[in-house]
Amino acid sequence: MTLRGAVAKAISPSGLIAVVATCGLLVSACGSSNSSSKASVTPSPSPKAKLITSVDACTLVTAADASTATGVTVTDIGASSGAQTAGTCLYGSADFTTSVIVEAQVYPSASAAASISPESLAAALKGANATGTAKVVTGIGDKAVEYTFTSSGTGGTMIFAFKSNVVIIIAVTPSTGPTAVENLARTAVGRL
Question: pLDDT tens digits for 106-124?
Fold first, then answer.
């Protein structure tokens, strides 16, 4: 089962399926993968959080931000190819060895966004035969969960950051360690 298929079964909100489909492209490019999770997060969005009506993933994390985080010059592949997907920004190196995917999904309320379960995401990754680990990261948005995965000798790091009524997913491959993806998530959340 592919990552996209596993997550589509585990999570029903249609907006997040688009997120995972995009992240599935990243994982598929590396081959099959596995992941497991011991992370448990109780959502606690800010009680007076302002509802966000729209976001642009490419302004939450720019090509310059992605290049700095990965140490490799990346460009907006969607803009250059004309194949952009709403809510998604895909950056890649000229030799296609480095990629950064940024997905931002706006939900109707903070509680709707908070209902997206990191545990379900981890279970979906495990169901897609991903090998990796999950951990809760503090200090990024209302909650954040980071996944490190490996596949055919190559790995990546993915973070799910929740802020008010927005869920942001950022995936970096190959993995440059947790610092890069965590810094990108802090930048993205700070720009909401």
Answer: 999 999 998 887 666 656 6
Q: How far apart are CA 98 and CA 156, in angstroms?
A: 10
* Residue 45 near residue 162, CB atoms below 8 Å: yes
CATH of the domain at 81: 3.40.1000
| Domain count across the chain | 1
Residue 165 above 70 pLDDT? yes
Q: Is the dihedral of CA 29, 26, 80, 18 positive or negative?
A: positive
Measure CA of the first residue to CA of the last residue in the chain; give whole Å: 34
Partner residues linked to 150 by β-bridges: 34, 155
Range of the domain at 36: 3-190
Structure-model confidence comparison of residues 121 and 55, the more confident one: 55
pTM: 0.71
